[in-house]
Design brief:
The chain has a domain at 11-235 and 425-440. The protein is 24% helix and 16% strand. The chain is built from 14 helices and ten strands. The protein has a four-stranded antiparallel beta sheet. A four-stranded antiparallel beta sheet has the order 6-7-5-10, with no helix packed on it. Strands 8-9 form a two-stranded antiparallel sheet. The N and C termini lie far apart (43 Å). InterPro entries: Dimeric_a/b-barrel, DyP_N, Dyp_peroxidase. Residues 30-140 form the DyP dimeric alpha+beta barrel domain. Keywords: Iron, Metal-binding, Oxidoreductase, Peroxidase.
């Protein structure tokens, strides 16, 4: 890895949605559009450059509220971006998420043929995201976004997903979400783990040196620099099935909560097993300065406290040497709940659609999102567990159990069903504000 350097990011040109952690609590809306008229699409980009919030705008009267504009590969085509520029983008982005389904293990019920229309099709050209700490601020953010797309014939709204924080500020499986956020060199935003050195800015923002010293930038530079890639992914959660699994594999309520913690790597409060190995510690879980400050290699290399196969250790092995160079695979991850909660204690599905909208931000689709999804989430080779899958979001087949390391005898749980089903997703490009203006000024 290259040595740390001092980098000054051009924050006034970078969209705030690239670097800022999600507010807590939060409300969010995703809006997808199809460009039917190229000229109108370019006008949308010109307006969007004024509606989007920059990473330098951290003292807005709206608080932790922002609007982000993302464009798919098909959207860049619809805008008339020259072929030479299109070919300079990451090849995974050019293919799109639906074409990458096999590598991502989006098969069976998660395959693109079952996705929610129009996700995964060439119809989705632009995705506008509004994020705020509460519904009133969200409405103000949507009003700001409406300045870009409102009354613009030739630009058609084709999909919307509203998200919100549950009263418990947890996701539907019952775990505190939004706990981890990496520090990005030059962003001025501290990471959630003080033991992790800031990552090179080029891991997240195009046009800057990354951990290997390379610089990735689609061409021309005015289009690529200060941009990033975004992965949007909608996952339906089988909450009733998850609850039944915990119940069926435990002898009492306390054991059920321990299994839930061993599957996730954290207690439901957010307290990590690494710091609270025996019992939940809600005070620790609510302490943003302590709940994510831990490593694995020195204190728990064999996973007797935090199992190597649990969700958080797969998603971010931290300092675990068996995972290779972890810093090459770090992403900014944000989750947002959608759908009504299943009432507490209910063990049968009510037919409602509920789950998480995920956003993953990074400059390297292949070695960040796709690597983590295919190798860490859906393969256990990196920590010696064969073809095992992540117990929470992995592509479980109902045949492989979950192992909890334990002395003197490990504990084996029943085969895991699939608790999270992909309902759709998109690979997008988050242009800089100057790139949005460049897209708006294109001419045939």
């Amino acid at each position: 890895m290259s040595a740390p350097t001092h980098v000054t990011l051009e924050l006034d040109d970078i969209q705030r949605g690239v670097l800022s952690p999600r507010p807590t609590p939060y409300a969010a809306t995703y809006l997808a559009f199809r460009i039917d008229d190229r000229t109108r699409g370019r006008e949308l980009m010109r307006r969007a450059s004024a509606a989007a919030t920059s990473a330098a705008d951290t003292s807005s009267p709206l608080g932790d509220t922002w609007v982000s504009i993302a464009v798919t590969y098909w959207g860049l085509q619809a805008l008339g971006v020259p072929r030479s520029s299109l070919d300079s983008f990451a090849w995974e982005f050019r293919q799109g998420m639906a074409a990458r389904a096999r590598a991502l293990r989006d098969e069976g019920a998660s395959s693109p043929q079952h996705w929610e229309a129009p996700l995964g099709t060439r119809e989705v050209h632009v995705v506008i995201t509004a994020v705020a700490p509460d519904p009133p601020h969200l409405e103000a953010a949507i009003d700001r976004a409406r300045l870009a797309y409102g009354r613009l014939p030739g630009v058609t709204a084709i999909w919307r997903q509203d998200c919100y924080a549950l009263p418990t500020e947890k996701e539907h499986f019952g775990y505190l979400d939004g706990v981890s956020h990496p520090a990005v060199e030059g962003s001025g935003i501290p990471g959630s783990n003080t033991l992790e050195a800031p990552l090179r800015s080029g891991e997240f923002v195009l046009g800057y040196p990354d951990e290997l010293g390379g610089v990735q930038t689609p061409q021309p530079a005015v289009l690529g620099r200060n941009g990033s890639y975004a992965v949007f992914r909608k996952l339906h959660q089988d909450v009733a099935g998850f609850r039944r699994y915990l119940r069926d594999n435990s002898a009492r309520a306390e054991d059920e909560e321990l299994i839930a913690a061993k599957i996730m790597g954290r207690w439901r409060s957010g307290a990590p097993l690494a710091l609270a190995p025996q019992h939940d510690d809600p005070a620790l879980g609510s302490d943003a300065h302590r709940r994510n400050t831990f490593l694995y290699e020195q204190d728990d290399p064999m996973g007797f406290t935090t199992p190597g196969g649990c969700h958080i250790r797969r998603a971010n092995p931290r300092d675990a040497s068996v995972a290779g160079e972890v810093r090459l695979h770090r992403m900014i991850r944000r989750g947002a709940v959608y759908g009504p909660p299943l009432p507490e204690g209910v063990l049968e599905d009510d037919g409602a659609d509920r789950g998480l909208m995920f956003a993953f931000i990074g400059a390297h689709l292949g070695r960040q999102f796709e690597f983590v999804q295919s190798q860490w989430m859906n393969d256990g080779v990196f920590f010696g567990a064969g073809a095992t899958k992540d117990p929470v979001v992995g592509a479980a087949d109902g045949h492989t159990g979950y192992t909890i390391p334990r002395r003197p005898v490990r504990r084996r749980l029943a085969p895991l069903p699939r608790f999270a089903v992909t309902r759709g997703g998109e690979y997008c490009f988050l242009p800089s504000l100057s790139a949005l203006r460049w897209l708006g000024d294109l001419h045939d």
